[in-house]
Queue: 4 jobs
Job 1
Amino acid sequence: MTTPASGPTGSEPPAPVLLTEPAEGTPDVVADAAALERAARLIAAGSGPIAVDTERASGYRYSQRAYLVQVRREGAGTFLIDPVAVDDQVDPLVEALGTGEWVLHAASQDLPCLADLGLRPTTLFDTELAGRLAGFERVALGTLVELLLGYHLEKGHGAADWSRRPLPVDWLNYAALDVELLVQLRDALEAELREQGKLEWALEEFEALRTAPPAPPRKEPWRRTSGIHSVRTPRGLAAIRSLWEARDTLARDRDIAPGRVLPDSAIIQAASVNPQDEQALLQLPVFKGRAQRRLAGTWLRALRAAAALPKSDLPDPSPPTDGPPPANRWADKDPEAAARLAAARASLTKLAEEHRLPVENLLQPDLLRRTCWTPPEDPSVEGVTAALRAGGARTWQTTLVAAPVAEALRATAKR
């Protein structure tokens, strides 16, 4: 695997060069229509791939919108664009980015909020995904830049409140550095993938990521409340649901991250203790705070609404799913399916090791489980290929895995 430039043979590679600010200095924030027009003209006149990144405020705001968009292109420089300041009217940027190749790191995190601004790539290169396919064990941006380019990026503000205005200079430097070396990293990873014979795999993955439809809303999202496994009764689950929905409404209306309105741990505790009045509620640790005292009536109404529900409206402790049960239960529910899954997993693990890539990138684990739980009627390589393709597997994946999966299905069927 390619490594960063090193010293004389047998010596340790030189220490990475620390970057604390962009080579061209801290860019001004593009915060009005005229500045956006100028930036767009420069970006359009630049050449080569376009590095793109966003900053959100996930831990602070309910919205997953972009509070800053970073763009860098050869011949144009780096631009830090404040979409809020221009009322999300970024049409000049849409046109400037045009049909150029976008380079993002962990694109699935940024593409949704970019699409909300009308920004959608026509060609994509994801450096995180490229790093995974190339077999790097750690694929954080800073790690890959250090390994392949020999630079250490000043980090530390990724989880900051990017809705804050004005943004501090050190935050702006951090944001600009996220795109400073992204195109160079792209080139190094492309060379690595080409050398390993995986470039076509990566291009197919990038296109699948680029064209993926928006994720559908989660069914019963309240069931993802941290610690919910400790509450087992339908009435207790109803209390969690009611508190979660009350919190979600408040968070959405105020554009505050739900966990800052009321932490999950407090929801679980209130549902478990089931306080009968406001005084009992305010005895619980989190609810003693000033902010929670002001909202005590909201939380108590939610608890009382859950307590008043008829049994027919209580949530099921074990709701039906559209997929197979957890794999650790297969041996009891369907021993043959468990044998199929074990055989297929063993084959794919070996195949992933041979090709130096994570097994989950070789084939989506959920798709493998579904295929082994309900195998295709035709267990031939062709039949398995068709089933995997219908489940979303890419051509390069089915080329590699269809035969060993088909063999696992057939072998266990003979037992």
Job 2
Amino acid sequence: MLINLSETLSVNNKVKHIEAPIELESFKLDGHEYKFVLKNPVSLTLTNLGERRLLIEGKTSVSLLIPCSRCLEDVEVFFDISLEKEVDFKVSAEDRTKELDETNYISGYNLDVDVLIYDEILIDFPLKVLCDEDCKGICNVCGMNLNKGSCDCESTALDPRMSVIRDIFKNSR
């Protein structure tokens, strides 16, 4: 959702409260797509600080379905998002880039709520998700989820990368 900031920037000390829906259908990262389970509207407060500076404060909570890193079952992961950003409209886009200021959620005088929320999820996105601390994962031979039962595959599968070392021990006997 795009929010026009011109009206807020036109009056010093103006405060505007907005409930903005999240229009993202899914969260896409590194070629993977994660579905939303929960998308609460973003409660935004826009405050004109004067001298073409704007304070953006927001809160929301969302949850995504992310596969467990061991067994690949979907896990609902919650994100409580609370943000506070100050944007200086006197600074050009070129200068922001030089200062490594990431304000890709501002385009001209428009605030893109979806990009803002995407960036906040990206910052908090977990490196590893587990359905349970004791998750047994999947069998590397047949692919069965070992949390749901055991399989008849040989459990002493050898790592092929160690074949050179095994050959050394075989030849030394």
Job 3
Amino acid sequence: MNIHEYQGKEILKKYGVTIQRGIVADTPDSAIQAAKELQAETGTKWFVVKSQIHAGGRGKGKVKETGSHGVVLAKSITEVPDKVKAILGGTLVTHQTGPEGKKVNKVLIAEDVYYPGESEPKEYYMSILLDRSKACPVIMASTEGGMNIEEVAETHPEKIIKEWIDPAIGLQAFQARKIAFALGWEGNAFKEGVKFIGSLYNAYLGLDASMFEINPVLKTSDNRILAVDAKVNLDDNALYRHKDLAELRDITEEDPLEVEAGKAGLNYVKLDGNVGCMVNGAGLAMATMDIIKLSGGEPANFLDVGGGANAETVEAGFRIILKDPNVKAILINIFGGIVRCDRVANGVVEAYKKIGDIHVPIIVRLQGTNAEEGAKIIEQSGLKVFSAIVLKDAAQRVKEVLA
């Protein structure tokens, strides 16, 4: 589960991570009030207006309606309303949102931390995530903060610092110092940096997070280390331990079909293709998507109905897939292990009749327990549903209906 920058920063603050302070607002008037409160608290004279969407690249992204960038600077309180109006309610397009962009419902009014001083402010990159190949968390850092880390990894891999953490003993003090040394921090920045890394790792564990990305981490002109941004991804499977964090979910930032599928207990991810697929089992779903591509189509979604597929789940899956206007055909691929194929076939027929007026061809491939009985039910239904037993036949059917 993704959360907004302002939510991530507030959580990190509770774990002792130093952050760029800010106050969230959803109207120009509340933004002015936020700026006044922030000035009274921090003494800042300039304010950073930051769009709050679940996507990176906001600073380079632009609002369709106004041409404003997603992160802008207001050099006085009087400038704040106009800066906010140019962003709030608009559609922000970044390299991560795609051309359709995302609507900005909130902005963060943040303090200016790039003030002049004894040295130039410098940006760094830092993240913590699970390295599945080594079965342990890894801290990644770089002196090239504020940039696309994928580009840095491709062009200057030597600038990516990695430190793997043994989960049995946790982050050791020498490891935090090692990262701080590698980033070139000295004096007070070094001390604050070591503390920053330790607090960040404690937050990662405490939240059951799947990823933290702080880009940039800033060394200020007076050698403080703080998080200017915070991308926090929480593990959905651990939210039962964090009821307060589950409440931070913003469904307006998620695909409506994925939200609907979640309520129906389905694992659904929308894609850009033309063939909807409904499968029981994640591995089989991946294989089905491959076979769709080999047949000349493109998968329109990933949809796993689970091992206990029945008429209700099949109907819910149908309804969700059919709401995608790009879908030109549906491939149902069920392996009858826990669930019998004849039961699934009856569910498909019932769902088809209940939904009615389905204009796209449906290919049903059943294999496993009572597969032959299931195929007969499909063939004798009189509906525009094509049956297949082996995956090759299903792929050929897809190819035929797309021709």
Job 4
Amino acid sequence: MPAEMKYFCISEQTANYLQKYIVIRKRKIFVGQKTAKDLEEILKKHKNEFYLYPCSNIRKEEIPLFLKDNGFKFSEAVIYETVPSDLSDLAEVNYDIIAFFSPSGINSLFTNFPEFKQNKTRIAAFGPTTAKAVKDAGLILDIEAPLPNAPSMTGALELYIKKANNIK
């Protein structure tokens, strides 16, 4: 990689990963808080760069639209493909709660089990896009995270279990 290479990361977690596995200087990593929106002001300060946008075959339009709408020079590189896992060995297993962390998880559920019925299974979703995908699939969303009183999935599950068991 060229010495002048810069890295723009959506989160601190991604930046830490880069620092652990790629030999780079800290000053060349620019980090947002949690979302692509957080990076917009940082990117605007580096308008004359040429960007490589590594992504999945399934991705949001937010970043490419921002780059396109603001005249950035960039190329998109699909570096991994999101595909459903084969879960056929779980056909006879019933779960109290199924937690989803992305819309592709809901797609995987229905790819593996097209006749899936929620019945008494509780559905948990992390993030607004995943919550929307749960509802769009005709499922009942029982547990949602992050929320102000439950910023993590474990916190949301804990609150739900306490409420369901009348624990204060």
